């Protein structure tokens, strides 16, 4: 007899009890965890707020442009600004971002011109032609596929001796995919510099978080892969920033990947392609989450420091509207797509079948 | 020149390219210390180090995704899928991701990935180890699918595949790994992808085949010669894209053709070859183009393999129908 306790249930309860949502700024904009308050400069705080407000405007405009038929596929982002932009704020320019389709704001702030993001939405391949030196991939459509690719990018960075990281995002639904587990497991096994985000916005289209898994938190899934993992308040920009910065520092120091679950909410529908959230969420739930709004609490925090005002916010909103208008104009100038264009981007050298088809379509297109 | 089996020629090609380009990485399940379950990577980890030749956790989708990420960092990944029957686990990485990267990014990123994998029947494996799934791959735009039938071709084609800036599925027939030796140059050489090879010249009938079926076809051709027929055997070597010029030239010479594949008859490569011949050379034909293929069941249990797999006798039977039409 070894005298060890046989208590599988107790082990689970013990592990799960360790996962508590990390918060710095509460919904009233008060610092509840002062020892973790990041040392961001005034300029940095203002910049982060600016990006969140800007992105909220971008979301509102994108929805209305979609309704006017001037944008195509669009996945609303309002409610997720802290999760998306405060995590991105902790990254460096040479870090690689592997986004899901809701993660357009991060890649725009990482350097994708806005007009290209609009072309992605409209379904034009020029939107996915990434400018040289911008370390992003186009938004992934297959849920979770970006996770395992992030492990590969991170391993590549490690083999190159880079001091950058690979960062990827999925949602609560994505954490049920096989590629999710393979991604965190591979990155863990190779100690590759990756940061994996689960933006737990409570619903995978209509399926609530509780149907995805018996696990009490999604963050704890990192335990099985042997990697550090944490659940943070995804409506709190400071907590998201600190958790990301911490994960990045460890990754760059050669300590491997981290899994971060951000607890957040999408105010809008899953996408603008016909989803009706009233079928699966009540107004009461929406209202509860609206009280936790990331912009509201960060505004209070910054106002308390004398760093933000109504005038400042109006200025950001007006600038955003103006730039969005300009970006739409640029997107409108994109050339019409042709079949010969599509054939030309298939291979470095066209095989016989595509060569023949190129000639056929060239003749048709010149009529 | 050294005498090599196909598996030795494959190892030699991998070694050649690991030496030639420091971006080449070889990885997969058991490819490190163990040298792969068929020893295709024998000695490579020792020679090139664990950074270049490495084991992965056991997850095919993970291996595919890893290859994508490494390619995005400028590497030239050569992952191994331990048996091609396991490919279903990595179908999204292959068809949903690797095949489309150049296209979906409008040429920003390319995927210089060669996925090597053993396939093919006749060696009494358990389920899901022997299936011929090249048709599945060939239907995916963006992929090239290569299947060598000799050690010489295997080395030259694998080097071409690894140097290709687009993805290549490289399928190695299990039964050909050690079935015979051939002279293989020790230096690097390439055989172009998309180029068929006339393995035997003839005047009366063209047989188009690939993989193990090339050898069954050659055997059939020998038998038919005894009966006075001059039979040409064309080894497709690449099943996507097809070498249409060689195929059509052969049909125009012999005016009769059959197509042989080990895979089930439904859909598939042979059907595609027949269609191309019909579209391009129907007026040269003296007889219908027929196929020799396996029946449309799931790949059989090992005890039934030998009655299920097409062989030279089936080929002779079909060839005679066409020759005497």
Automatic annotation (TrEMBL), chain A:
<feature type="domain" description="Dehydrogenase E1 component">
    <location>
        <begin position="50"/>
        <end position="339"/>
    </location>
</feature>
<dbReference type="Pfam" id="PF00676">
    <property type="entry name" value="E1_dh"/>
</dbReference>
<dbReference type="InterPro" id="IPR001017">
    <property type="entry name" value="DH_E1"/>
</dbReference>
<comment type="subunit">
    <text>Heterodimer of an alpha and a beta chain.</text>
</comment>
<keyword id="KW-0560">Oxidoreductase</keyword>
<dbReference type="GO" id="GO:0009083">
    <property type="term" value="P:branched-chain amino acid catabolic process"/>
</dbReference>
<dbReference type="GO" id="GO:0004739">
    <property type="term" value="F:pyruvate dehydrogenase (acetyl-transferring) activity"/>
</dbReference>
<protein>
    <recommendedName>
        <fullName>Pyruvate dehydrogenase E1 component subunit alpha</fullName>
        <ecNumber>1.2.4.1</ecNumber>
    </recommendedName>
</protein>
<dbReference type="InterPro" id="IPR017596">
    <property type="entry name" value="PdhA/BkdA"/>
</dbReference>
<dbReference type="InterPro" id="IPR029061">
    <property type="entry name" value="THDP-binding"/>
</dbReference>
<keyword id="KW-0670">Pyruvate</keyword>
<feature type="coiled-coil region">
    <location>
        <begin position="310"/>
        <end position="337"/>
    </location>
</feature>
<dbReference type="InterPro" id="IPR050771">
    <property type="entry name" value="Alpha-ketoacid_DH_E1_comp"/>
</dbReference>
<comment type="function">
    <text>The pyruvate dehydrogenase complex catalyzes the overall conversion of pyruvate to acetyl-CoA and CO(2). It contains multiple copies of three enzymatic components: pyruvate dehydrogenase (E1), dihydrolipoamide acetyltransferase (E2) and lipoamide dehydrogenase (E3).</text>
</comment>
<keyword id="KW-0175">Coiled coil</keyword>
<keyword id="KW-0786">Thiamine pyrophosphate</keyword>
UniProtKB/TrEMBL annotation, chain B:
<keyword id="KW-0560">Oxidoreductase</keyword>
<dbReference type="Pfam" id="PF02780">
    <property type="entry name" value="Transketolase_C"/>
</dbReference>
<feature type="domain" description="Transketolase-like pyrimidine-binding">
    <location>
        <begin position="4"/>
        <end position="179"/>
    </location>
</feature>
<keyword id="KW-0786">Thiamine pyrophosphate</keyword>
<dbReference type="GO" id="GO:0004739">
    <property type="term" value="F:pyruvate dehydrogenase (acetyl-transferring) activity"/>
</dbReference>
<dbReference type="InterPro" id="IPR009014">
    <property type="entry name" value="Transketo_C/PFOR_II"/>
</dbReference>
<dbReference type="Pfam" id="PF02779">
    <property type="entry name" value="Transket_pyr"/>
</dbReference>
<dbReference type="InterPro" id="IPR033248">
    <property type="entry name" value="Transketolase_C"/>
</dbReference>
<dbReference type="InterPro" id="IPR029061">
    <property type="entry name" value="THDP-binding"/>
</dbReference>
<keyword id="KW-0670">Pyruvate</keyword>
<dbReference type="InterPro" id="IPR005475">
    <property type="entry name" value="Transketolase-like_Pyr-bd"/>
</dbReference>
<protein>
    <submittedName>
        <fullName>Pyruvate dehydrogenase E1 component beta subunit</fullName>
        <ecNumber>1.2.4.1</ecNumber>
    </submittedName>
</protein>
């Amino acid at each position: 007899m070894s005298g060890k306790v046989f208590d599988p249930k107790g082990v689970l309860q013990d592990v799960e009890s360790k996962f508590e949502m990390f918060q710095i700024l509460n919904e009233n904009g008060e610092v509840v965890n002062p020892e973790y308050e990041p040392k961001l400069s005034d300029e940095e705080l203002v910049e982060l707020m600016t990006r969140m407000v800007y992105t909220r405007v971008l979301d509102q405009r994108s929805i209305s442009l979609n309704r006017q038929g001037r944008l195509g596929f669009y996945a609303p982002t309002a409610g997720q600004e802290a999760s998306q932009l405060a995590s991105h704020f902790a990254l460096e320019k040479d870090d690689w971002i592997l986004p899901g389709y809701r993660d357009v704001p991060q890649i725009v702030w990482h350097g994708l011109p806005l007009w290209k993001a609009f072309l992605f939405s409209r379904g034009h391949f020029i939107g996915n032609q990434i400018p040289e030196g911008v370390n992003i991939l186009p938004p992934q459509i297959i849920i979770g596929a970006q996770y395992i690719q992030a492990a590969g990018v991170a391993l590549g960075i490690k083999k190159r001796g880079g001091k950058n990281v690979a960062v990827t995002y999925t949602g609560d639904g994505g954490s049920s995919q096989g590629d999710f587990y393979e991604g965190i497991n591979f990155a863990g096994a190779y100690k590759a510099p990756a940061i994996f985000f689960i933006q737990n916005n409570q619903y995978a289209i209509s399926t609530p978080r509780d149907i995805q898994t018996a696990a009490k938190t999604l963050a704890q899934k990192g335990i099985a892969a042997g990697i550090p993992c944490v659940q943070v308040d995804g409506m709190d920009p400071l907590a998201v920033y600190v958790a990301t910065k911490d994960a990045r520092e460890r990754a760059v120091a050669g300590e491997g990947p981290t899994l971060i679950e951000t607890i957040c909410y999408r105010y809008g529908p899953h996408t603008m392609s016909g989803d009706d959230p009233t079928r699966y969420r009540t107004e009461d739930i929406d209202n509860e989450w609206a009280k936790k709004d990331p912009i509201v609490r960060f505004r209070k925090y910054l106002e308390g420091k004398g760093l933000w005002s109504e005038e400042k916010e109006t200025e950001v909103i007006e600038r955003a509207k103006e730039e969005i208008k300009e970006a739409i104009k640029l997107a409108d100038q994109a050339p019409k797509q042709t079949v010969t264009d599509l054939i030309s981007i298939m291979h470095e050298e066209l095989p016989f079948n595509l060569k023949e088809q190129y000639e056929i379509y060239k003749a048709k297109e010149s009529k | 020149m050294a005498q090599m089996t196909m598996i030795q020629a494959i190892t030699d090609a991998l070694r050649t390219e690991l030496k030639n380009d420091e971006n080449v990485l070889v990885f997969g399940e058991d490819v490190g210390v163990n040298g792969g379950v068929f020893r295709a990577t024998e000695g490579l980890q020792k020679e090139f180090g664990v950074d270049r030749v490495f084991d992965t956790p056991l997850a095919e989708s993970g291996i595919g995704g890893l290859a994508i990420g490494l390619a995005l960092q400028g590497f030239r990944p050569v992952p191994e899928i331990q048996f091609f029957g396991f490919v279903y686990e990595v179908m999204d990485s292959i068809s949903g991701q690797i095949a489309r990267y150049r296209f979906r990014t409008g040429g920003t990123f390319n995927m210089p990935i060669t996925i090597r994998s053993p396939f093919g029947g006749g060696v009494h494996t358990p389920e899901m180890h022997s299936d011929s799934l090249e048709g599945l791959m060939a239907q995916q735009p963006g992929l090239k699918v290569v299947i060598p039938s000799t050690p010489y071709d295997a080395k030259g084609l694998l080097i071409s595949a690894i140097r290709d800036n687009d993805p290549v599925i490289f399928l190695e027939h299990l039964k050909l790994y050690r079935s015979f030796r051939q002279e293989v140059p020790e230096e690097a050489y390439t055989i172009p992808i998309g180029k068929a090879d006339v393995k035997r010249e003839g005047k009366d009938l063209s047989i188009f085949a690939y993989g193990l079926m090339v050898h069954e076809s050659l055997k059939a051709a020998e038998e038919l010669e005894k009966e006075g027929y001059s039979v040409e055997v064309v080894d497709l070597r690449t099943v996507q894209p097809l070498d249409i010029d060689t195929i059509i030239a052969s049909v125009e010479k012999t005016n009769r053709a059959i197509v042989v594949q080990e895979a089930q008859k439904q859909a598939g490569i042979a059907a595609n070859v027949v269609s191309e011949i019909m579209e391009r050379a129907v007026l040269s034909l003296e007889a219908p183009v027929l196929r020799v293929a396996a029946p449309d069941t799931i790949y059989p249990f090992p005890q039934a393999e030998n009655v299920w797999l097409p062989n030279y006798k089936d080929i002779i039977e079909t060839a005679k129908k066409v020759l005497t039409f």
